Amino acid sequence: MIIGLTGGIATGKSTVSNIIKSQGIPVVDADIISREVVMPDKEAYGKIVASFGDQILNDDKTINRAGLGEIIFNDSEKRTILNEIVHPAVRKEMRRQADAYQRLGECLVVMDIPLLFESKLTHMVDQTWLVYAAPEVQLQRLIKRDQFSEKQALSRIRSQMPITEKKELADVVIMNNGSLSELENDVLLLLKQTKKQT
Predict the structure, then answer these.
(1) How many helices (H) and strands (E) does the chain have?
(2) Residue 141 CB: number of other CB atoms within 10 A?
(3) Average pLDDT over residues 30-54
(4) Each residue of 133-180: pLDDT tens digit?
(5) 172 DSSP β-pair partners
(6) How far is 111 from 67, CA to CA, in rounded Å?
(7) Is 13 in contact with 181 (CB distance < 8 Å)?
(8) CATH numeric code, 1-26+108-198
(9) Using CA atoms, how far apart are residues 176 and 183, in angstroms rounded to an integer?
(10) CB 167 within 8 A of CB 138
(11) What pLDDT does 75 receive?
(12) Other C-beta atoms within 10 Å of 38: how many?
């Protein structure tokens, strides 16, 4: 069984991902893979350099993510070009890793995908799990975590699909309004129940 784990900014998805890993369950992480697929020895790298030119490279020939980010942040056409290169490469590598774990006999594999619903990747998983925090909890956590003003935090939150909308789409909602130990207990119980189903 493949679980798609997602959340919103500051809802606690990374914490849940770490709890799952601590139980020896493999987690395929979309963020890590998206950094790996643009390394100089990868296919996507050549396509990015061909599309954006050498000016996006650091001295060691790796891609300057901040510089590239500046370009695509202000140009939706270029952002589309980049996404059309990177997203298929990320999906292919996620699928490859999940398949490899399943061949090794893992009955449960988790795909950690921040933009699971936005990128319409639910077809890659058997069940979707959302780490949910109430919007006011999410806001306070983000302000505290990143030292943002309320305005900065709200603009980050509003740039994502609202967490309440994601809640409607998810198969399982992991509530994270309380303490870390409550969250841990809930996740361990959920894993136990899910393993029984596989």
Answers:
(1) 9, 5
(2) 17
(3) 94
(4) 999 999 999 999 999 999 999 988 888 899 999 999 999 999 999 999
(5) 129
(6) 28
(7) no
(8) 3.40.50.300
(9) 6
(10) no
(11) 86
(12) 23
State the Cα–Cα distance between residues 110 and 30, nearest whole angstrom.
11
Rg over alpha carbons for the chain, rounded to the nearest Å, is: 18
**Is 0.90 topped by the overall pTM?**
no
Are 94 and 124 in contact by the 8 Å Cβ rule? The answer is yes
Tokens representing 86 are: 């990177």
What pLDDT is recorded for position 160?
A: 87
What's the mean per-residue pLDDT of the chain?
Answer: 94
Cβ-Cβ contacts under 8 Å for 153 (sequence gap 6 or more):
139, 142, 143, 146
pLDDT at 7 over 80: yes
Position 155 scores a pLDDT of 87
Question: What are the extents of the domains in the chain?
Answer: 1-26+108-198, 34-105
Read off φ and ψ for residue 111, nearest 5 degrees.
-105, 115
| Count of alpha carbons within 13 angstroms of residue 48, beta-carbon side | 31
Paired strand residues for 130: 6, 173
Q: Is 106 exposed, middle or buried (0-12, 13-18, 19+ CB in 10 A)?
A: middle
Residues 118, 25 contacting (CB under 8 angstroms):
no
- Closest Cα to residue 78, out of 90, 66, 88, 68? 68
